[in-house]
Write a structure and sequence with these properties.
Blueprint: H1 27-33, H2 36-56, H3 58-72, E1 77-81, H4 87-95, E2 100-105, H5 108-120, E3 127-131, E4 145-151, H6 160-168, E5 171-182, H7 193-209, H8 217-223, E6 227-238, H9 246-260, H10 267-279, E7 288-298
The chain binds S-adenosylmethionine.
Length: 299
């Protein structure tokens, strides 16, 4: 398998960098950083959700990639920024069989996980990984791509406009950037009041520590010097029969929600949320509702 840990790309990356940033990353995440085990656990939870997301929303991502391909035409080099466990990386490699895809992430664990998946999918010869911090000035310094894909990663950045302006310099003439962002976390039980209260609490919490979650990225892309060429909203509304992994996806997501809302919901609601997470895999009324938007931009 080909892999590149090009540490020259890394800007002052240290394991606990989030502590030094003035912006708030996920509080649970920051807290978990202080404890080796908790951090490992937190990383594993997020990796599990990303993998389940990729499995449950596989058809949706295939549809998104087909649309991206229509917008960009064939490409030779692709950069997946904040690649996580590689849902986008693998989908891009499949959609663009002539392309090399470089997955960039600040987390070495995510990249290791991604390399295993690329290997298992028989795509390792076209997928490379680079550990880099996109908040840093050198995050994409040596990159040179026809297509830059950033899915649900831009809202994690301290100053997305500054990072996007740097990313713009990594795009070849005629190339594209696609920003793909969720409006909110997925919902599983329509009409469930507890789930509604939890989402309201998360929205209030995120307004403080992740102000760009759910943002309209068109003005932010323009502020970074891009021209927005197209925008499309994808509504996800999965009804039964659902993919086999949906129950586990809902359960892992609700458990993570429960962890993040410690101290922000009443003890009764927290206990009810725990019970809901345990029961959700067998609920016959389980659905998946989410909304994601893609913006296609040129430098
Ligand atoms: C919600 S996940 C999305 C993963 C993937 N793009 C997907 O759609 O499944 C966000 C990812 O961004 C990465 N990330 C967060 N801040 C970053 C930074 N400053 N530089 C590079 N990657 C970052 C995280 O490690 C995580 O893997």
């Amino acid at each position: 398998m080909t892999q590149s840990h090009t540490h020259d790309h890394v800007h002052g990356h240290t394991h606990g960098h989030a502590h030094n940033q003035p912006h708030g990353h996920d509080k649970a995440h920051d807290h978990a950083h202080a404890h080796g085990h908790a951090h490992q656990h937190d990383h594993q939870d997020l990796a599990d959700i990303l993998d389940l997301d990729a499995e449950v929303l596989h058809d949706h991502l295939t549809e998104v990639m087909a649309w991206v391909h229509e917008q960009t035409g064939d490409v030779a080099t692709v950069l997946d920024l904040g690649a996580g466990t590689g849902a986008g990386t693998l989908a891009l490699a499949r959609r663009f069989p002539g392309a090399t895809v470089t997955a960039v992430d600040v987390s070495p664990q995510m990249l290791q996980h991604l390399r295993h998946k690329a290997q298992a999918a028989g795509l390792a010869d076209r997928i490379h990984t680079v550990e880099a911090d996109l908040d840093g000035a050198d995050g994409t310094k040596a990159a040179d791509a026809d297509l830059v894909w950033a899915a649900n990663s831009l809202h994690h950045l301290a100053d997305p406009v500054a990072s996007l302006a740097r990313i713009r310099g990594a795009i070849r003439p005629g190339g594209h950037l696609v920003a793909f962002e969720m409006d909110a976390f997925p919902r599983f039980l329509p009409g469930d009041e507890l789930e509604t209260r939890c989402h309201e609490a998360v929205t209030a919490m995120r307004a403080g520590d992740m102000p760009h979650l759910g943002a309209d990225w068109a003005p932010l892309l323009r502020a970074a010097g891009f021209t927005v060429q197209a925008q499309r909203r994808f509504e996800i509304d999965l009804e039964p029969p659902l993919p086999e992994a949906t129950g586990r996806y809902a359960q892992t997501s609700l458990r993570r929600l429960r962890q993040g809302l410690e101290g922000r919901l009443s003890p009764e609601d927290l206990a009810a949320l725990e019970a809901l997470a345990e029961a959700v895999p067998t609920r016959p009324d389980l659905t998946v509702r989410a909304r994601r938007t893609a913006w296609v931009a040129t430098p």
